[in-house]
Every structure is written in structure tokens, then in C-alpha cells.
Amino acid sequence: MKTEISFVIAVALALLALILSMAYNNYTELKSMERNIESAIVKGIDPVAVKCAYSPQNTMCTVYAAKAK
Known about the structure:
By secondary structure, the chain is an all-alpha fold. The protein has one domain. Helices cover 87% and strands 0% of the residues. The chain has helices at residues 2-43, 47-54, 59-68. α1 (2-43) runs antiparallel to α2. The longest helix has 42 residues, at 2-43. It is elongated and about 65 Å long.
């Protein structure tokens, strides 16, 4: 009985750690993109191009790339 509870707690902690690490990774990615977009605006670079560098599979980026060529 004690080992079963320990196993459940270990699995729950592992899942919690996985969820928190994925959330932190997503947060840092968004902050990095935000800083790069702000830097691009200051330099006169199109911010949509910077956003599309982070997520090229986005439909908006596909339309932007087709329109830019």
C-alpha cells in the first residue's frame, strides 16, 4: 500500500514538473519573440517577418511569404 501511494505521488510530481517546464519554455519563447519584435521595429524591420521566423507554419506567415515574393 505504501509503495502504491509513493508511486502515485512520484508520477504526479513528474507530470507537474513536465507541465511547469513546458509552460516556462513557452513563456521564455514568447518573451524572446517580444524582445526581437521590439528590436525589429526600432531598426525598421517588418515585425511580421520576425514573428514568422518563430512560427513559419502559421497561415498568416504563408500568406505573408507569398505576398512578399
